[in-house]
Amino acid sequence: MNKYFIIFSFWFFILLVISMSPKKHGLYIHWDIVKQSLINHPELTIIDFKTGISWNVIVGNENILGSFHADVEPKTIDDLKKTIEIWGNYSWTPRSVLVNMPDGELVAASIHNMPHAGVEGEPYLKIVNKRTGGYGTGINRDYVKNNGMSGHVCLHFYGSKSHKTKKEDIKHQDKIRIAANISN
Predict the structure, then answer these.
(1) Which of 184, 179, 157 is nearest to 37 (CA)?
(2) Domain map of the chain by residue range?
(3) Cα-based distances in Å from 41 to 35, 90, 179
């Protein structure tokens, strides 16, 4: 009986130490490297850094290698519901996240939750009117259908840029540093 107590105590101690471990951080990898893993619309798991809530997204960029950041969409309606739970609604406010990449690496990133530039009920890349987010007429950037969201949200990594300004978004870059445990 003493042997079992020792074994139990050992595993209890291990689990206790693991549960008290500091928060996990992601790798700080430049966008030019990250985007090489995002060809052919892979599925990614996003983990909110603050809450630990995770959801799945699909990368929707037509040409990821020529893109300034990743355009992603929740895979399912349930994934969309998780994003609403985290932000409280749709929001341009970026959050620190960890991204489980196709190769299994955990990479620091930042994401907002404001769908834009798409129409759910229309074919991907078709010219459409009234795209979400006030984007008006243009190419439909809604890749994933039947997920409850029209358009996409932006997923930024170290060194990625805004499509509009073609410059790094400081708010996103700050959130990425938090997820990577890098001080300013």
Answers:
(1) 157
(2) 24-180
(3) 11, 23, 24
